[in-house]
Amino acid sequence: xxxxxxxxxxxxxxxxxxxxxxxxxxxxxxxxxxxxxxxxxxxxxxxxxxxxxxxxxxxxxxxxxxxxxxxxxxxxxxxxxxxxxxxxxxxxxxxxxxxxxxxxxxxxxxxxxxxxxxxxxxxxxxxxxxxxxxxxxxxxxxxxxxxxxxxxxxxxxxxxxxxxxxxxxxxxxxxxxxxxxxxxxxxxxxxxxxxxxxxxxxxxxxxxxxxxxxxxxxxxxxxxxxxxxxxxxxxxxxxxxxxxxxxxxxxxxxxxxxxxxxxxxxxxxxxxxxxxxxxxxxxxxxxxxxxxxxxxxxxxxxxxxxxxxx
Length: 310
Prior knowledge:
By secondary structure, the chain is an alpha/beta fold. It has helices at residues 17-33, 54-65, 110-120, 123-137, 156-161, 166-178, 201-208, 246-257, 275-288; strands at 81-82, 85-86, 100-105, 148-151, 186-188, 212-214, 234-242, 262-270.
């Protein structure tokens, strides 16, 4: 009788045991020479485990499950979120976007993932964020109307200070995940100090005033539309972090003035002025299925925890 190949129950050929062992040994050797580390906490992770260690993955999952207001993106108690906003953004008149999709609050480990992309240029973080953002966006009815994604642009002087144009990198990964066009319709024409270090909310709006312009006068009107009957293309701005909403307001204003019919926003993280303690309260409330008495729900102002800024 002739020799037969080792196969599975389906009759398909499988890798011989010695090759499996050799592949495992090579992977282990590669881990010793250039060990893989978690994108968030930088602890060692084995090959094939993904980009996050188990605790950080669990932490990210918990943040993503928190409910958020679709008008302003703030994480909040479910009972405080209404159909057209929440208690915090109900009195805010600057929201000129249709819907806000926020992956989660600016809290660990999501905060570190955002910073690792922004300040270190770790493209693994873009893949993590874009993948989870795409999962959140796909069930949204308004996504089917979006004609293109638009990244928040970076001034060339700022680009010299950063390892990458983080919003553009994130938007590119998200566009591929959603199979949507990515169009740099807006450019930054004026340099301004970073919004992160401006504590007073009103100054953030004046800081970015007239910072943006269309890349071409007819850039928006030239965007191909899914619905030819619409009064303008439907666009979705993409950014890594939403604080006061000043930058998004200005970019949306430029797009709408250029002919956009509707503008939405997809963002990786959203800050809360009451910081880690409030998010911890929301996490506890979600875990127990009850509202936390110590949590105030939505907060009117927004500032990231300075302990994690660098």
